Amino acid sequence: MTPLPARAGRRCHNALNPLHSTVYFSPDLAEELASLGVTDRNAVYLAGRSAAMGAVGPGTVTAAFYNFSHELITRHLPAVWTRVSPEEVLAARLRAADVTLRRLLGEDAIDSPELAEAAELALRATERCTRHARPLYAAHADLPVPKEPHLAYWHAATLLREHRGDGHLAALLSVGLDPLEALVSHTATGKGMNPRWILATRGWQPADWDAAEERLRERGLLTADGRLTEAGVALRAELEEHTDRLDSAPYEHLGADGVERLTELGRGFMVTAVSAGAFPEELLGKG
C-alpha cells in the first residue's frame, strides 16, 4: 500500500469536518428542538452533541467537550433531559441534518453518485476508528448508519470528527493546554473562532480569557499583543502532529488513493455548503 503523504489525514478531516458542523450552526436544529421544548441555543448545542452518550450529567459533558465552561454546562444539564429524551434529540438532529444538507448542497448534489461515493469512502475509513478513550466517538459509533447517502456521509463525517476530536483532547493534555488556553492559542493562529463567539457560546467571561492569555505569556507562548511566539507556533504544530498520529488509523486503512479522492469530494461539498451560507461571517478570526 502506498504510504500516505504528510498530513493527508488532517487535510481529509479538514474537508469533511465542516459539513458535519453545519448542523450545529443551522436554524433547522434549533427549530427541531424548539418543537420539543428546548429553546436556549446553548442547550440546543449541548443536547444535540451529547445525546449519543445518553442522559448524562454535566461532569461527563465537561470532560468530553473540554473547552466549555463547566458552569455553562451545569445550567443546562441534566435539566434538559427532563424536557426531552436523548433518543428524541438524536432523531431531531438527523431530521435537521437532512433539511440542512438539502438546502446547502442542493438536490442535484444530494442525488449525485459523487455523494454516494464520498459516503462509501468515509464509512470505509471509520472501520479502523477505535473506541477506547474516545467517549464521543464511541457513543456515536453505536448509532445506526442512515440509509440515505447524504445522511450516511454526514454520519461518517461525524464519526471521523469525534474520533479526531477525542484524540485531540489527549494531545492538549500532553502539551499542557487547559480548556481556555487551547481556545486562546487556537484563535491566535488566525484559524480559530473569534473571542466574542467563544465567550458567547462556551460560557467563559472576558476576565477568564484575559487570565488565559496571561498564563500563555508567562510560558513564552504568546506576545503582549496576542500573537503566538515562535515557541507558541511550535507548540501548536506539535499539538496537531500528535493529533495526526492518534488519528492516523482510519486514513491509513483507506489508503493514499482513497484519502485523496475523499478529500477531493469533501472539499467540493464543503465549498458548496460554505458558499450557501453554512456558517456565520463573524465566526472566525481574532476580531
From TrEMBL:
Annotated InterPro entries: HTH_67 (IPR054058)
Name of the molecule in the record: SalK
